[in-house]
Amino acid sequence: MTTQLESPRPAADRSGSGRPRPTKESLGADVAASFVVFLVALPLCVGVAVASGVPAELGIITGVVGGLVVGFLPGSTMQVSGPAAGLTVLVSSTVAEQGLAMLGVIVLGAGLSQMLLAATKLGTWFRAISPSVVKGMLAGIGLVLILGQIYPVGGLEQPTSTGDKFAGIPGLLTTMVSTPAGISGLGMTVLTLLIMVFWGKAPQRVRIVPAALVAVAGASLLSTVLDLPLSTIQVGSLFEAVNAPSLGSFSGLTDTAVLGAILTFALIASCESLFSAAGIDQMHDGPKTNYNKELMAQGVGNSVCGLLGALPLTAVIVRSSTNLRAGARTKLSRILHGVWMLLFVVMLPGVLSFIPKAVLAALLLHAAWKLIAPGQVAELARTHRSEAYIAVITAVTIVATDLLVGTLTGLGLAIIKAAWEMSRMSIDSDNADDEVRVELSGNASFLRLPRLLNHLESQPPTGHAHVDLSGVRHLDLASRQAVESWAAQRRRHGGTVEVSLPEHAG
Predict the structure, then answer these.
(1) Across residues 94-112, what is the average pLDDT?
(2) Residue-range domains of the chain with CATH
(3) What are residue 428's DSSP bridge partners?
């Protein structure tokens, strides 16, 4: 059942493009919504950057590009773009392997790839990816994100490899309960998470203030008042943080690992953006997303981020749904949220230095838990057990190896499952006196060939046999040749065989 948010209907478009345009009536709602989205997006931009192992400024630059560049372009009216928690694992491993200097090249390549996919009208095909693979991909990202973000809670730097992260957990737990920084970090994390969870139960008039803002502001204020020994984020000049790729960096495009990273960034970012679009479209009754235009907008945004050496961007459903709930009417709200972010960081960068890293880690832990969504996995297991297996295997493979290998594993399993189910074939036989009748229906493919041959070879070797294939929807060459070979062998032993082929078999 789809729930419609109680947000005003977007203002009608008078240009004939089908997109709502700002009016005097919608201006106030859009300005108010943009400010709410800005307050939610700013700490998330910083948190995603820190979790990705890059300077906090790069996350803010990506958020500004998501508002000022992607926000202007056609595609989706209500989606808000910026750095996403789902890409932190990929960015972190890429920066560790290729270096920060190559980040811009990879993000630029991913953006150009997205633009190519959009230009060739392949945007809508992303909707065809198996939901179980997407669920497994998101759950795997969430698990890896949790595994990394528990370390800032204790005031420690997260290890680079998955094995080291697991191995370091005992020492982390000891630090959390035995050192002032660890105890303080654990307390602030728990407080932040409690506010995030229980703010939704507050009265409606109070909940107009986003939970993320209340949690970050409250925990940061308490940490400052108590003078807790917690490390905080440091944000400098955005202009000095620009990490534009040098000409020499493009020589890395000859490296297959770099090319693989570009394709992975493009695939994951596109999937996240377009799946977010599908979800947001169900939440409002305004104009729906044009998937190819949205993919083009995301590609342009990532190309700009690449030229600036910033983080990759995607449409983020948390910010997008916040935009809707805050009463946004047109795309002006998402544009303005980028304006507020830029003005805030330029004019008041020192305010961000009061936010402890443990509080940002709590925000990302909350986001990671939503990515895992154990309730959805449990529901999937009750209704479609095989789909749940694919989701779990995908998630576990991502944790054990990396995002690309895990996602490709899930896609492979989904394709095998689909092929197996599409090859369903039923065999009925009737033996009477000296006549055998074998009737097939469904799809006769090589995947069911062993079963077909076993059934045919179990029939009496003499007498008349009638193999009726007329009811088969699909008869591949392997199955047809197998039947013909069995018939020829039966005739050599003195039997007679009649084979009825489907009309489409020729």
Answers:
(1) 92
(2) 24-415 (no CATH), 423-505 (3.30.750.24)
(3) 439
